Known about the structure:
By secondary structure, the chain is an alpha+beta fold. The protein has 2 domains: 3-149, Homing endonucleases (Endonuclease I-creI, Roll); 172-255, no CATH class. 64% of the residues lie in helices and 8% in strands. The protein has 10 helices and 4 strands. α7 packs across α10 (236-255) and α8 (208-219) packs across α10. The longest helix has 49 residues, at 151-199. The radius of gyration is 35 Å and the shape is rod-shaped. 26% of the residues are buried.
Amino acid sequence: MTRSERDLVTALRDELAAIDPSRPCDLLAEVDGLGPEPIGREVSMARLAHRLRRLGKAQAAGRTFDWSPAAEHCRGAWLRGRFLARGSLSLAGGRTHLEFVVSPDDAPVLAARLTEFGLPVSWRLRRGRGVVTSKNGEAVGTFLRRIGASGALLEVEARQVSRALRGELNRVLNAESANLQRAVSAAGRQLDAIDTLDADGRLSSQPYVVRLVADARRETPEASLAELAERLEIHRSAVQRALERLERLATVEHDAPAPARVALS
């Protein structure tokens, strides 16, 4: 992941960490989601943990968070805390990878809650830890927006769109370049064929349309088949057949010269 991508992820986490839950139930949910030992090392995370726990102690009054009856905003607050405490996000190479590292027992529970919240995930055990992941960029974006990330996420999406557009532009340019190279190569072969047939006198014996196309190709070697057809006011297929005939005749002459005529006395 590049420095720019890391900065975007940091900005996104800072934006989430700066959210002050307005409802006591959301505050309780986010404190529970953070858990006892958040692993985030950002300064914003340290401030968030201290602020929420201080407020939570004052307002929770012995209450505990229960996912099943919780409202959507409470679930979003809990998942925001869980992402900040145990989640990581990678945007390397334009690919989105969201990951949570939790205890083995918590992994299936978290996976079920994320799926219920609208983020399909998978989970597995890795070196004794539970790992919950999602690589669906669109779903991850929706999830992050629902838990409060909007400003930084807009920048992430803008860069992804820009990268996709650059990729599509490069693909189009590469295709156009390849087409141009093929056209130049074909025009070169056609001009060589015309010169060969003209030199041995066979060009003059070709049908009128073939000679017309040959003259037009000589005058405009850079023209496409469509441009030649438009110039001569004939079908493109007729131009293509004429040029193919010229190449075929020149190739036959080059590969298998006609036998010398024997004069009869």
